[in-house]
Amino acid sequence: MRDRFVTMHAIETLGLAKTVGRDRRLFHDLSMAVAPGELVAITGDSGVGKSTLLNILAGLDDADAGEVRIEGIALAGLAEAPRTRLRRERIGFVFQAFHILPYLTLEQNVALPLALISPDAAAARDQARAMLGEVGLPDRGRDYARDLSGGELQRVAIARALVHRPAVILADEPTGNLDPDTATRILDLFARAVRSRDAAAVIVTHSVATAAVADRVLRLTAHGLVEQPLVAVDG
Ligand SMILES: Nc1ncnc2c1ncn2[C@@H]1O[C@H](COP(=O)(O)OP(=O)(O)OP(=O)(O)O)[C@@H](O)[C@H]1O
């Protein structure tokens, strides 16, 4: 199934195009690549198409033209079952829509991606515990998600996105509603965890602080992706 032109990129898009509604072109001929261990932030005005692009990278939405490759594998060439498997095994999500389930414990929430891949429940529990420790929530595994603060929930979301060691992490406003100090702490933790695993991350964000932890910042505009100098997002 792997393409014969093996790429070093974890994520690669070639000539993506997307039009929504009756005739509203969000982007066309959009190409980008993210290497293992690299964090790329995508910024841009509200409504420009950032979340749509992220959904297309995730294989949750289809482009009108072009293709997305995850570790060299073209998503469009896959039938639904292998596409779902690739999404489960190779991609981690920190999406607003992918909520932590309130009536499961933290351990159960974080173990979910592992449970979808392997039947070894004891190993999943151990890995979930270790991952919770890594995001600063050791000994909280038996607590219920419904009792957590917003910042704690974001940590759990990050733990759940990384626990199965995906090659690709896709995040939509990962520190959305947090106060700046908590957001900075969680972003540092996120960036460290992504880099230590050599994962490739794409983070959609409005936040300058979020963009500042990235290796590259790409601004999505009506004319396509524009690379932003990193200094420009510091202030
Ligand atoms: N399936 C769809 N049908 C019609 N319009 C859509 C569809 N999906 C997205 N849109 C429109 O496309 C535009 C881009 O939406 P998107 O959520 O990708 O923007 P965004 O850049 O992430 O915005 P924000 O920063 O405000 O979250 C919006 O105007 C949205 O209403």
Please characterize this protein's 3D structure.
This protein has a single domain, classed as P-loop containing nucleotide triphosphate hydrolases (Rossmann fold, 3-Layer(aba) Sandwich). The chain is globular. The chain contains 7 helices and 10 strands. The protein is α/β, with parallel strands linked by helices. α3 runs parallel beside α5. It has helices at about 50-55, 80-90, 105-115, 120-135, 150-160, 180-195, 210, and strands at about 10-20, 25-35, 40-45, 65-70, 75, 90-95, 170, 200-205, 215-220, 225-230. Adenosine-5'-triphosphate (ATP) binds near residues 46, 47, 48 and 52.
Strand order of the largest sheet: 6-7-8-3-9-10
Secondary-structure element pattern, one letter each: EEEHEEHEHHHEHEHEE
Provide mean pLDDT, rounded: 89
* Gyration radius over CA: 17 Å
How far is the first residue's CA from the last residue's CA? Answer: 45 Å
How many DSSP H or I helices? 7
Tell me the number of structural domains.
1
| Name of the top-level CATH class | Alpha Beta
What is the CATH topology?
Answer: Rossmann fold
According to DSSP, the number of beta strands is 10
Structural class: alpha/beta
Sheet having the most strands: 6 strands, mixed
* Principal-axis shape: globular
CATH superfamily: P-loop containing nucleotide triphosphate hydrolases
Give the topology, please.
Blueprint: E1 11-20, E2 24-34, E3 39-43, H1 50-57, E4 65-70, E5 73-74, H2 80-90, E6 91-94, H3 106-117, H4 121-134, H5 150-162, E7 168-172, H6 180-196, E8 200-204, H7 208-212, E9 216-221, E10 224-228
Parallel strand pairs: 3-8, 3-9, 6-7, 7-8
Antiparallel strand pairs: 1-2, 1-4, 4-5, 9-10
Helix pairs in contact: 3-4, 3-5, 4-5, 5-6
Bound molecules: adenosine-5'-triphosphate (ATP).
Adenosine-5'-triphosphate binds at residues 20-21, 26, 44, 46-52.
